[in-house]
């Protein structure tokens, strides 16, 4: 039987807190018989996404592979690691309120180009037509995966990391990777290295065990079960962050894009998300299809601006050095 593979993606410094925490979790996976791989993403030169939409356009035509116009070979290291993975452990330091800039660069490149609701139909069409596999997306694009998220911040005050884990869903969301655990290590400035915090390292061992449990699960429900310490306010992403709409008692989970109702029970704030809303979370297939169909509709019905080049002339060179 082929071994399950767990890949760690670090956006932190070499052998610093983030990297060592990921590797502790990977070691636990290896002890359980899993194949492991580690990718230090900051060692790779990845071009920013320029928003040209060529990747998505090719997928929607049914004739593209979701490849990027930027032929930076080092992105292939991340892509191949993702394709081969059955589980991912993704870690990023928090330097300024959210994950690092390089984390965002990689997420923008993964984004729509690897979205399973774009890639899946293109794979099906390629197979149905009997085409060369090199002419449609990698069939591994749509296999089920689980994942865990880790962030590290120096601040002693936890809320300086409040946008970190919510943003880290950008890595897992496109491919529908089910996040089954996550951990936020704050107050890292208190000690020179996380190896001086056995409690945190024990938690990373536990995170690795949670990945193993999910990969060995016999049912879909058990595989995708959330195993983190805090169930959070949102029952889907398990985050506490909310957007207040100022319309009655409606609130929204900005990670999932779903609406809930805020209530006060015995002096405690509670938010109720209906089953219908939970099902349309952008972390689930229904929510992802809702979004990708919106993109398809926009591309098909987009209104063209007349005399666009002429209208742009007014802005050419404005504020630029001569």
UniProtKB/TrEMBL annotation:
SUPFAM superfamilies: Flavoproteins. Residues 13-120 form the NADPH-dependent FMN reductase-like domain. Keywords: Flavoprotein, FMN. This is Flavodoxin family protein. It comes from Ruminococcus hominis.
């Amino acid at each position: 039987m082929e071994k399950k593979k767990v890949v760690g993606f670090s956006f932190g410094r070499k052998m610093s807190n983030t990297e060592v925490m990921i590797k502790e979790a990977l070691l636990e996976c290896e002890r359980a018989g899993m194949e492991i791989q580690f990718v230090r993403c900051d060692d790779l030169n990845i071009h920013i996404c320029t928003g040209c939409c060529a990747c998505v356009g090719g997928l929607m035509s049914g004739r593209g592979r979701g490849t990027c116009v930027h032929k930076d070979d080092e992105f292939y290291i991340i892509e191949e690691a993702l394709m081969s993975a059955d589980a991912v452990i993704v870690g990023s330091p928090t330097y300024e309120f959210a994950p690092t800039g390089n984390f965002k660069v990689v997420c923008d490149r993964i984004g729509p180009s690897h979205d399973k609701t774009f890639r899946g139909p293109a794979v099906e069409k390629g197979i149905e037509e009997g085409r060369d596999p090199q002419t449609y997306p990698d069939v591994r694009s749509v296999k089920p995966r689980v994942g865990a998220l880790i962030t590290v911040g120096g601040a002693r005050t936890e809320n300086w990391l409040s946008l970190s884990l919510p943003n880290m869903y950008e890595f897992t969301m496109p491919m529908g990777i089910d996040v089954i655990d996550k951990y936020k290590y704050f107050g890292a400035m208190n000690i020179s290295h996380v190896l001086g915090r056995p409690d945190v390292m024990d938690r990373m061992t536990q995170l690795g065990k949670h990945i193993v449990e999910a990969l060995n699960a016999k049912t879909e429900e058990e595989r995708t079960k959330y195993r983190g310490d805090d169930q959070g306010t949102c029952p889907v992403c398990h985050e506490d962050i909310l957007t207040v709409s100022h319309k009655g008692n409606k609130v929204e989970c900005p990670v999932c894009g779903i609406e809930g109702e805020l209530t006060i029970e015995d002096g405690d704030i509670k938010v109720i998300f209906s089953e219908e809303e939970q099902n349309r979370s952008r972390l689930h297939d229904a929510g992802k299809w809702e979004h990708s169909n919106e993109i398809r509709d926009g591309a098909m019905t987009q209104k063209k601006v007349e005399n666009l080049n002429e209208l742009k002339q007014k802005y050419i060179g404005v504020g630029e050095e001569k």
